[in-house]
Every structure is written in structure tokens, then in C-alpha cells.
Amino acid sequence: MNIWKQFARPALLAAAAMAPVAGAVAAPQDYEFRLVANEVKQGNDAVITVRLIHTPSGRAVPDAAIYATRLDMSPDNMPTMTTPLTPVPGGEPGVYRFRTNLVMAGGWALTLTAKVQGEEGTVQQRLVLRATP
Question: Which pTM value belongs to this model?
């Protein structure tokens, strides 16, 4: 028996098992945003950091296009209290940061909508964080 066949076959089978199926498309529910910290210091230079995760693999998803954001105080029954978000460049792949003015301590809801490259549909999620004095 050829020694290369003995070692090559298991390696090829393992690689085939890990390769994506041709034409397979992940669904938007296969992704989720996660807050890096549930509490953020109140103020006009607050930075909120989230990760976009492909939940079946547990891996962070880089280069998503986040095109809709909203930050409001709906957790504290003040949905009309909103504040703008500005993307902050840099950081590790799959991590997205936003600078904002958290004018009040309390509960804030961050709503994000994103498009993952190569996938159909959009990922939309609402995360709740707390601004602390």
C-alpha cells in the first residue's frame, strides 16, 4: 500500500467535512450581535463595542456592512430619548465600535441592522446595555 494514500485519505475526508456545501447560504438567524460590555460609562465620549458572531461556528464575522443603527432609552420607558451613533474605525476583525453621547444613566437599547458579505437577508438585533454614572 502506498504510504501517501494512508495519510492523504483521512486528511481529505476531514477537509471535505469542514468545507461549506456548494450553494449553501447561512440564514440571518445564524448570526448575532453580542455586547462586549453590558455597562458603559455615561458621557459624551462613550464607546459601545459589539461583536458579530456566526453562531454555528462561534467565529467573529469581519467586514459586515452595518447600515442602520438606533440607540434609545426604551428599556427605561423613554423610547423617544435617542442619541446618534458614530462608527469608530479600527479594532479587531468582527468587532464593531460606536461613539455616542449617553446623556443619562440607565437602560439603553441598541438596535443594529447589518448585511453579511456573501449572505442573503439582513441581521437585525436589539441589545440592552446600561449607562453608569
Answer: 0.78
